[in-house]
């Protein structure tokens, strides 16, 4: 007598598990994810470790080039001392450098006020000035001051602010703007477009005519109205901008939904009594995620560039905040004399856009149900 062997039921794989496995098998996409995560961590934590605040102005270091060694350089100290002596309106007798402190002797034809040390406090290169000795007639003073060491790995900008710190702060702003506007556009566009495409008929006509009306509104006028309502709060403003960018997303998803609603598995789900909401969530939306992911990776850089344009018009990010687009625009004006002002922000922006594109290609391949 033949024995029947009962095997355990095979556990199926969901679309999300299968997509995750396919995504992790794509090396370019995995490297892009790691890079974007590292970029996000660097922009969040980096400004706390550079030793500079993004608003601090170093008057002695305006547009200094990048350097791995500390400023001031040995050949710069003499010139800085001469500038301070000129402002103090005294004569420099002698100076010497001992153990990171400078000792200098000054003389004047009139008694010298010991408060002249305040000129050293105003300098970015010196710190902790002290009056060591004063001559009986008050015409000669011996001062000592420490040399303040500053590292500018990316150099400084036109006003003497550390470019590395400002580039990382700009990354916070640019990435936040791109993600906020992109996620807002995706959520609204996918829900709106999938609903219109699946329901079809008169409802689809009415919903898409609303999209056409919104398309006809002048974009700049709409942005100006948003600034009037939300003020200079760039977070609220770009969430609202993302709420306008969903129009393209809605059309893309609607076209996909019109094709998906005629597929056999959707008709089978209807025959089994699945509700329209369930069909939208389990069948229509998952099968549109491939084009949505690709468009999302294109929308983020588009919003970043849009932010640069609005900031140029005075409607976007304002000082002391900055963004990669603003830094690149400022660096382009200084190409002949300070190329580093353009190179470093451009590298950050370009590498991030490449990573987003590679990630978008990986998501498209992983979420395409035809390749399962």
SSE order and pairing:
Layout (H helix, E strand, L loop, with lengths): L14 H10 L2 H23 L24 H15 L2 E8 L2 E7 L10 H4 L4 E9 L5 E8 L15 H37 L1 H15 L3 H12 L3 H27 L3 H8 L4 H9 L4 H24 L11 H9 L7 H28 L5
Antiparallel strand pairs: 1-2, 2-4, 3-4
Helix pairs in contact: 1-13, 2-5, 2-13, 5-6, 5-8, 5-11, 5-12, 5-13, 6-8, 7-8, 8-11, 9-10, 11-12, 11-13, 12-13
Oligomeric assembly: single chain
Terminal Cα separation, in Å? 41 Å
Number of helices: 13
- Shape summary: elongated
**According to CATH, what is the topology of the largest domain?**
MetI-like fold
CATH superfamily of the largest domain: MetI-like
Quickly name the level 1 CATH class of the largest domain.
Mainly Alpha
Secondary-structure element pattern, one letter each: HHHEEHEEHHHHHHHHH
Biggest pleated-sheet summary: 4 strands, antiparallel
InterPro entries: BP-dependent_transpt_permease, MetI-like, MetI-like_sf, OppC_N
Domain ABC transmembrane type-1: 175-360
Protein name: Oligopeptide transport system permease protein OppC
Pfam family, one: BPD_transp_1
Q: In words, what does this structure look like?
A:
By secondary structure, this protein is an alpha+beta fold. The chain has two domains: 15-53 and 156-371, MetI-like (MetI-like fold, Orthogonal Bundle); 74-147, Gyrase A, domain 2. It has helices spanning 15-24, 27-49, 74-88, 118-121, 163-199, 201-215, 219-230, 234-260, 264-271, 276-284, 289-312, 324-332, 340-367, and strands at residues 91-98, 101-107, 126-134, 140-147. It has a four-stranded antiparallel beta sheet. A hairpin with a 2-residue loop joins β1 and β2 (101-107). α7 (219-230) crosses α8. The mean pLDDT is 82.
């Amino acid at each position: 007598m033949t024995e029947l062997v009962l095997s355990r039921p095979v556990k199926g794989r969901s679309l999300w598990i299968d997509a995750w496995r396919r995504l992790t098998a794509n090396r370019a996409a995995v490297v892009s994810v790691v890079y974007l995560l590292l970029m996000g961590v660097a922009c969040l934590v980096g400004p706390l470790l550079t030793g500079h605040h993004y608003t601090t102005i170093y008057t002695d270091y305006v547009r200094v080039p990048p350097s791995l060694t500390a400023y001031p350089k040995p050949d710069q100290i003499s010139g800085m001392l001469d500038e301070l002596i000129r402002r103090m309106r005294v004569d420099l007798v002698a100076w010497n450098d001992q153990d990171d402190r400078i000792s200098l002797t000054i003389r004047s034809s009139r008694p010298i006020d010991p408060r002249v040390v305040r000129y050293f406090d105003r300098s970015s290169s010196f710190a902790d000035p002290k009056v060591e000795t004063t001559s009986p007639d008050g015409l000669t003073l011996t001062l000592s001051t420490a040399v303040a060491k500053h590292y500018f790995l990316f150099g400084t900008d036109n006003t003497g602010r550390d470019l590395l710190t400002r580039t990382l702060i700009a990354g916070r702003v640019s990435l936040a703007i791109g993600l906020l506007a992109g996620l807002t556009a995706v959520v609204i566009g996918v829900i709106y477009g999938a609903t219109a495409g699946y329901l079809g008929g008169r409802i689809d006509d009415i919903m898409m005519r609303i999209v056409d009306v919104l398309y006809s509104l002048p974009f700049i006028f709409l942005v100006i109205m948003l600034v009037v309502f939300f003020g200079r709060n760039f977070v609220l403003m770009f969430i609202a901008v993302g709420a306008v960018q969903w129009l393209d997303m809605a059309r893309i998803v609607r076209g996909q939904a019109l094709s998906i609603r005629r597929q056999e598995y959707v008709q089978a789900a209807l025959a089994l009594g699945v509700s329209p909401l369930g069909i939208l969530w389990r069948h229509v939306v998952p099968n549109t995620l491939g084009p949505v992911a690709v468009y999302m990776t294109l929308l983020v850089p588009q919003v970043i560039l849009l932010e640069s344009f609005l900031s140029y018009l005075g409607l976007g990010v304002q000082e002391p905040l900055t963004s990669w687009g603003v830094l690149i625009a400022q660096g382009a004006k200084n190409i002949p004399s300070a190329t580093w002002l353009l190179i470093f922000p451009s590298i950050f922006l370009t590498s991030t856009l490449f990573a987003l594109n590679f990630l978008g290609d990986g998501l498209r391949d992983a979420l395409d149900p035809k390749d399962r």
